[in-house]
Write a structure and sequence with these properties.
There is one protein chain. This protein is an alpha+beta fold and 133 residues long. It is 33% helix and 50% strand. It is built from three helices and seven strands, in the order H-H-H-E-E-E-E-E-E-E. Strands 3-2-1-7-6-5-4 form a seven-stranded mixed sheet, with helices on one face.
């Protein structure tokens, strides 16, 4: 019984050591995640906090608009999404790719790889466009 208690304590300590590491994601990844979660849940305050006003959303060859200020979009994000990775150009963060993203627009659903284009100003990242392949 004492041995299983020690195992439980060690497991708990190991788990608690992982939680802060997840909370310390780079700021551009945090912005992308919060933007996508806000969009998917219809939380327009979260979207507005990380978007550049009207955000163009390109799905395949068709363009749509996500208007953060007005709290409406021609295209809807379907949760969940998976696999956020940094896009760098000449060492600077320019965006975040999403390995798997699903959007619903024009009565159809599109699932594929996505890219969020980001702009950095004074250390703050903003989503300026979204593309879904």
């Amino acid at each position: 019984m004492a041995r299983s208690g020690k195992i439980a304590v060690v497991s708990l300590v190991a788990l608690l050591g992982v939680v802060p590491a997840l909370a310390q994601a780079p700021p551009h990844i945090q912005v992308a995640q919060e933007f996508l979660l806000g969009w998917g849940k219809g939380n327009w305050d979260a979207v507005k906090a990380h978007a550049a006003g009207k955000v163009p959303v390109k799905v395949g060859s068709t363009g749509y608009t996500l208007d953060a200020e007005a709290g409406k979009a021609d295209v809807r994000l379907v949760l969940p999404f998976r696999g956020l990775s940094t896009v760098r150009v000449e060492g600077k963060v320019k965006g975040v790719t999403v390995d798997e993203i699903t959007v619903r627009a024009g009565g159809a659903e599109k699932k594929g790889k996505g890219t969020l284009t980001l702009e950095e100003k004074d250390g703050k990242f903003t989503v300026t466009s979204v593309a879904v392949e």
